[in-house]
Amino acid sequence: MGHIFASFIIVLVLTSLCMCARADRVPAQENIPGDSHAQGFSYIAASYVKYLEAAGARVVPIRINRTYEEYVKIFNSINGLLLPGGDVDLQKSEFSRVSKIFYDLAIKANDALDYFPIWGTCQGFQQLTVLTSGKNLLTLTDTKAVALPLAFVPAAQNSRLFKNFPKDLLQSLSEENITSNFHSWSLSVQNYSRNAKLKRFYKVLSTNTDGRREFISTMEAYRYPFYAVQWHPEKSPFEWIDKPGMTHTPSAIKASFYTAIFFVSEAMKNQHQFPNISEEEKALIYNFAPVYKGLGSIFVQNYYFD
């Protein structure tokens, strides 16, 4: 799985006082065991924050161990949610509890024509499959540190996510090893096809294989603005550990920014806002300082939270 602690990144809409960039929310998650830099008990990798900021969003971290009422208030103040990568229990962790609260609120909001997008990366992808199916249907794959091309299915051509990507970028994504995979678990095409809830909810856009099992690498919901990638678009421009699977080619970085711009543009369709400027300023990630962990770390920088 990708690495992330129990905090969400969400796209926030600015107050009506100015027409500026939206902000994204990202949930934190429980700290990785053995992290010598850890402060508090949860974290968010800074690469997810930079990923959203590079596309014109502002980020609000969603802390774990808060009350349901607090999360409802946050939901009504932000414009979208990014579920990051990580390595926590998808059914019993605080990250999973908070994810379910926001997932349920987003379903209810979208059903009421209140457009609210969710993006899941790696662990976030996996968490969305558990929330939708009510089961953990993941399968072990040999995909811990490898860069792959995407095997697009015909539905990708007219998908919301990919339909406006430049043709040369789509060609690069389909022919070059530029999507970073850092996960041990995947949703196999077989398990997806056997689960009626997942098949009704998500449209498969691309698949990959580890040589033995074919798994889903990109998907989007049919009726809801929910998007999920098993790969890591944020790593190419912002993470630098020297491992197989890390790629910094121009096409990989271009793919990162096009996915981020797409998601932020989705968040801009939402009209939630904070009650006032003061509350908005207190919520932003700018109030926290990232901790430099070194170039040998899976994350160059982390934000830590109590």
UniProtKB/TrEMBL annotation:
<dbReference type="GO" id="GO:0005773">
    <property type="term" value="C:vacuole"/>
</dbReference>
<dbReference type="GO" id="GO:0034722">
    <property type="term" value="F:gamma-glutamyl-peptidase activity"/>
</dbReference>
<protein>
    <recommendedName>
        <fullName>folate gamma-glutamyl hydrolase</fullName>
        <ecNumber>3.4.19.9</ecNumber>
    </recommendedName>
</protein>
<dbReference type="GO" id="GO:0005576">
    <property type="term" value="C:extracellular region"/>
</dbReference>
<keyword id="KW-0964">Secreted</keyword>
<feature type="active site" description="Proton donor">
    <location>
        <position position="232"/>
    </location>
</feature>
<dbReference type="InterPro" id="IPR015527">
    <property type="entry name" value="Pept_C26_g-glut_hydrolase"/>
</dbReference>
<dbReference type="Pfam" id="PF07722">
    <property type="entry name" value="Peptidase_C26"/>
</dbReference>
<keyword id="KW-0732">Signal</keyword>
<feature type="signal peptide">
    <location>
        <begin position="1"/>
        <end position="23"/>
    </location>
</feature>
<dbReference type="InterPro" id="IPR029062">
    <property type="entry name" value="Class_I_gatase-like"/>
</dbReference>
<keyword id="KW-0378">Hydrolase</keyword>
<dbReference type="GO" id="GO:0046900">
    <property type="term" value="P:tetrahydrofolylpolyglutamate metabolic process"/>
</dbReference>
<feature type="active site">
    <location>
        <position position="232"/>
    </location>
</feature>
<dbReference type="InterPro" id="IPR011697">
    <property type="entry name" value="Peptidase_C26"/>
</dbReference>
<comment type="similarity">
    <text>Belongs to the peptidase C26 family.</text>
</comment>
<feature type="active site" description="Nucleophile">
    <location>
        <position position="122"/>
    </location>
</feature>
